[in-house]
Amino acid sequence: MIASEWLYVMDDRNGNSNSGLHRVGQVPGAEISAMKKLLNRLLAFRGPMLIGIALTGFAFAVLLPGFQLAGRLDDTTAALRLVSEQRRQADVVAAALGALRDRLDSFGYVDEPLNEVRNSMAELDSLERTLNAATDLGGRFAVSASRPIRSSPELAADLVTFQATWQRLRLGLVPVVAFQGVPYADSEASGVQLNEGGRLLVQESRKAIVVARRDGAQMSAALGQIAAALEAQSTQLSAFLRLLMLVAFGGTLAVGASLTYYALARRRQALLLAEARLQTEGILQTVKEGLFLLDSKGHIGAAHSASMRRLFKRDPVAGLSLQELLAPIVPDRTLRTALRFVEILWSERTKENLVRSINPLQEVEVSFETGSGGQETRWLEFDFHRVRNDGKLSNLLVSVNDVTPRVRLGRELAELREKAQSQVDTLLGVLQVNPEQLRSFLADADTAMRMINAMLREPAKEEASLRGKLEAIFRQMHGIKGEASALGLTTVQSRAHEFEDALKALREQSSVSGGDFLTLAVRLDDLFSHLESLGDLVERFAQPVQAAAAPGDTGRGLFIVGAPRAVVDPGRAASGLIDTLDQLLQRVAGDRGKSARLVTNGLEVVPEPYRRAVKDIAVQAIRNSVVHGIEIPELRRIGGKAAAGTLTVQFCDEGAAGYRLIIEDDGAGLSLRRIREAAVERGILCAEDAARLDSKQLLPLLFRAGFSTHAVADEDAGRGVGMSLVAEIVKDLNGRLGISSGEGRYTRLSVVLPSLQRVQSVAVA
Amino acid sequence: MLKETEVRTFLDGAVHYFEVSARQPVAVGVPYLVTTGAPPVNDFTGVIAVSGKRKGVICFTAPRSMLMVLLMRMNESDTSEENMRDLVGEVANTISGNARRDFGRDFCISVPSIVASSAGPLSLPTEMRPVVIPLNWRTHSARLIVCLS
Amino acid sequence: MVMPPATLKLMIVDDSNIIRRRIERSQQIDSLDFIGSAANGVEALELFETTDPDVVTMDLTMPEMDGVECVERLVARKPSIRILVISALADKATAVEAIARGANGFLCKPFTDRQLNDALAELLQDG
Fold it and tell me: Which residues belong to CATH 3.30.450.20 in chain A?
């Protein structure tokens, strides 16, 4: 019984293509299609009854009519034989009458023809009686010649004709056959002569001959009609009977065939059941899935898969309640939800679909104590199925799968990444790097990352501009990666590398949309965090004594942008900054075949909270000056300038007015023509507007994100990001920004940052 | 510390919201970080505080113009300020609530609080770097701000 | 679809005014007769006392009294009441809890008008 129950359950699962049930469906014994199942059920329960009904129907539809038909055919044949036999009586009478006349003429013996007439009359009377009989004399089942005639109006009419002619003939014959004795008188005198009776006989027989000639022929004709009709009827009946026989034959074959099929199906079903039972047992023994039935009292049935013991590390499992099974291995909260859910499953109130959709146990974390006192964590997937017997909910079939590998794979990946983020060998790398160089790198990297973020933020909708972003971001990140590898900062390098990989993957996509960039933003966040922690490290080790940074001082927030994490000696900080700027200047200039020297003034008075901002601004401005301002040596010589350009970075404290940062180069100055051209090219202005605007209106365009007069983007220019980044930093600090230029002579960037007291008072307000 | 799959959960929720409620998809803009200062906000911002498994804030911020059209798309003829505030809160609530599908029940969300841009910049926990995801819908632009520890 | 001929009284509970109005406007079940809405669990119980609704749509995240508790109290007062939970909380444990406490259906926000009507129709189908 259990076996068939399982079979049913599995079949049912096959039919429902719902959640994770296919695994069971692959078991061969369960592959009984719904059709076959239906047929088998039909045969199992209704087969004998159906065959009984078929047989009864057959009897009624074929055998009874056949019996009747056969009876009718007998009757008809009897009648036909009778009529055919008696048809000649008219001739017999005519012949007998002729013989009588001849005998009378020759004084022959008359009794013989007279007796023949009498005989014929008796035969014909008997015929008439037989055919005209109102009832079947011999009973219902005896052969009755009158029955076909009674049942046919045509034959009845023919019979009436026969009767009429026969009665007329009979009337003519009666005086003849009434004669008795000898018709002759023998006397010596006259010899043999007809006596008086003889003379009368002669008269009567002459009359009878006339009558017989007339009515006998008619009677014969009437009997012929009856015979013909009977024959036709007989032929028809025979045909019917043959047909019926054929039907009966077919029917017999069909019943026989279905009986055979039924027997075979029964046998096959028995085989299948036996096989299924074997397989069910086999499945329960071998299936990796945990399978068990919960009864209405919430207990696990005896028929459960062997793997239950392995999955739950319990033996025996049968007889336990679900609560007992789960309580030791899941948190209370999960247990409560599970029991709640099972309650819902038992209440018929909640529909199957709803129940399915809310199964909360699809990934349950379970933990077992291992022998050595440790904990083993696994993840199980539970699937519940209502089992009905005769429409009534009888059990819950529960399948349990160990999905640990799947879950673990996902978590391992995440953990791996997290681990990479907290790798401690960072320290080793950091300690080997000169602190100033490291600070400089961190500042550069920070700037580059801010640029990347600014590029992300820059609105872009078209595919082309999104792809443009990818390219620009790639170059920035590549720069960070290169510097990190040069310094041996493997943790930064690997992050930058992963970032590049993600970026390359995006680049290879056939189409990119904004959402695809999420992975970059998240990785950028990770890099920011990582560089911040590196910054913490470097400050802690570079300045062990003075490390008095406020713990919450993370370098972000409204008024503490750029704040380093420790109090740094201003002189050292300045020299680090100057080195960084000079390195940058030399590298960018070298890359472009230009030559330049750096002159700084007042950088040691940059207050701590502005140090990073000053550096970020200076880095961008220097890049910009070298790329756009300072000419190649040949050009400079033609212009009467020194071959090497000069870049001046000045910082001064103007008291209540705040701080002023001036970055100036002695290059070509800004070209309004090129700004106009670029503005038109980039669709920011139309040609007429561009021509109309003056320098005051044109110059602010330089601080607009995405604006660059450089046609091709490379590592240092062309993305139109650098100056917009400057503008943004200044804006964040509530500072002011100005740019001025003398064509062929200089470009001067001037930044005013508010005094720190003012900033703080704003913050307090 | 942002995790991509987690942020994506919220983003998917937002995309789904527009698909179902506005019957018109949003174009997701390029996400970026807020590295300095307060995140950019529009006229109204629905803020959901997250506690439990993760801590932080989920915001949906949108301009009046967009909220008005959204309300109209939802057959709501009353486009009063009251209803606009209601809507940003509902969107933020739906996006956060849907995230429980992935975060589970220990991801607790507050009832929404609504902040108008006129009340000043949004102050978010300073130790986190929020990610801003622009949501462009028709000609309007809203933002989803995810700020999680 | 054959609906019960008698009209059933519908109460809408959601802290969002626009959601309340939307459900009221969008539901097109002939046998449902909207009788009022409430913005939280406490209001819902008060409205229940005066109007005796047969069908309720119930938000879960609400101030004052949340939806799960409200479901339980409504079912305790009127076991035949039919409650469709309409919530943004998409985790299964929440759905299980709401249904275990007596809710009859669960619809996740955001929803289309059609989803709403299908859910309501299903809610009433075997009632």
Answer: 287-405
